[in-house]
Amino acid sequence: MKIHSKLRTSDFSTPVKKMYFWAIAVSWVLFLITGLLMWFDNVVGRWIVAISYVIHDLAALLMLAGFIIHVYEGTAHQPGTFRSMIDGTVTDRWAWTHHPAWFRAVTGRDQREAYEREKEQNRAR
Known about the structure:
It contains six helices and no strands. It is mainly alpha-helical. Helix 1 runs antiparallel to helix 2.
């Protein structure tokens, strides 16, 4: 049984990675601007400083949530990922499952063929 007729591969960024990047980038800019407004509170009106506190806190919470999700996704959510951070290696299965384009570029083999080969080996056991 085939999983997909064509596997979609991504070379570098997925839409979720792009969303994460922009959420952190926008939060960082808001955090910086509102922090400066709070720091130099004698330059701007009091109501702008009050709004800055709220936006500053929300931006900080978004960055904190993004960081926690990033750590979870990069370690516990993907088995084998933490080990790759420690010793710098991954198994063939991990590579063709999570980064098929990279697997193809490094090994020169097709990820579907690697999947089918492993499936046959598991049936033989």
